[in-house]
TrEMBL record:
PROSITE patterns for this protein: G_HFLX (PS51705)
Domain Hflx-type G: 210-375
Binding site for GTP: 216-223, 241-245, 263-266, 329-332
Gene Ontology molecular-function annotations: GTP binding; GTPase activity; metal ion binding; ribosome binding
Gene that this sequence comes from: hflX
Classification of source organism: Bacteria, Bacillati, Actinomycetota, Coriobacteriia, Eggerthellales
Family from the record: Belongs to the TRAFAC class OBG-HflX-like GTPase superfamily. HflX GTPase family.
Keywords, alphabetical: Cytoplasm, GTP-binding, Magnesium, Metal-binding, Nucleotide-binding
Intracellular or extracellular location(s): Cytoplasm
Protein name as annotated: GTPase HflX
Keyword Cytoplasm: yes
Source organism per UniProt: Candidatus Aveggerthella stercoripullorum
Cross-referenced Pfam families: GTP-bdg_M (PF16360), GTP-bdg_N (PF13167), MMR_HSR1 (PF01926)
NCBIfam families, per database record: GTP_HflX
Amino acid sequence: MAQFDLKETAEPLERAVLVGIDRGEGLWSLEESLAELERLANTAGATVVATTTQRLDAPNPRTFVGSGKAEEVAQLCRSFAADVVIFDDELSPSQQSNLEKTVPKDVKVIDRTALILDIFALHATTKEGRLQVRLAQNQYLLPRLRGMWAHLASNRMGGGVGSRFGEGESQLEVDRRMVRKRITSIKRELAELAENRQLQRKSRYESGMFRVSLAGYTNAGKSSLLNALTGADVLSYDQLFATLDSTTRKYELPEGREITITDTVGFIQKLPTTLVEAFKSTLDEVVGADLILHVVDASSREFEAQIAAVEDVLEQIHAQNISRVTVFNKIDLLDAEALAALRHRYEDAVFVSAETRKGLDDLIARIAWVAASKDVIMHLAVPYSRGDIVSLAHERCRILSEDFREDGTYLTLQAPASCAGLLEAFSVSAEA
């Protein structure tokens, strides 16, 4: 039998060196932040071969880290044959340029923001998602044109981590005017898509349906929870930023009331402002909700810092005043003692496992309770010619009594606040 040489066809993982500085501030320890950066690097297709840190009160304006540490980073790149250096904070254009001159010429230098944008480029699937990522990338690149484009001109960017920056970015003649033109063009396309999304959103608002949005740190299990509640088939992986596009599904509460539940893009600490702005139309699903379910990974050691990071983004998008329920997910990964301590500490939270479905009934009951707390009691007299109003009342409201008389249908019902305006024209006194 003929012998054949087997050849490896899979792309080898890029080798990454991580760099972080400890300023002794914030909820995140340097160790935790770098552990997350490693997960981000893995998600983007790199394997971490070395990590180095430095204690500084403030970043060095020239090379972010001190000159001695910059030389150490260069030596690590040589020792471990690294392909990319990833800094845990955002680098200025000049810092990136100076660092590129220090490390070996075939090594890329990127920061946390570029890494996140790179992952978003990998995972964007819809037209709107791809446009949003491209917009954020171009906004990030605009002030870095000199350094970044020289980097590309010398073919140092290559492929892989940190290089998925949209169409045309490898053209040497690209300049600020072209990038600004591209940003304007993308914004125009996004505006058209946002208009269509707004029409869909408006029809949901006018329907009087109670709207629930899932928000939370990336990989907290929002998509899994949506799937468990509604039977949806939303992509769900144990991976950072597995899904970027919002998904809305209808759900009928046990009392018969229909609601919508929307899954949204996950948040992360040090979330680039360019991403918050670019994903505005997606995040509007959170801003327009009647209730936000803040989904938290109960098994994460950093859940407190993750909660704070999500609260920060909710404040950025002006959603901090919307009714909120904290939902601790993945409780199947906790032992009894840890779960009891968490329940004691967060008495108002709901504890669930999307994987085993434990606690879902409690979550559904809490959603129904919040929805009902915003209801108003109404008495209606609806002529028989307006059967659509009676149908709406049955679909969106809780019927307390119904009486058929000669001149029409008389209803006493519990109506959501969002639906009350549609029924107001048929309101009569309780005596009637």
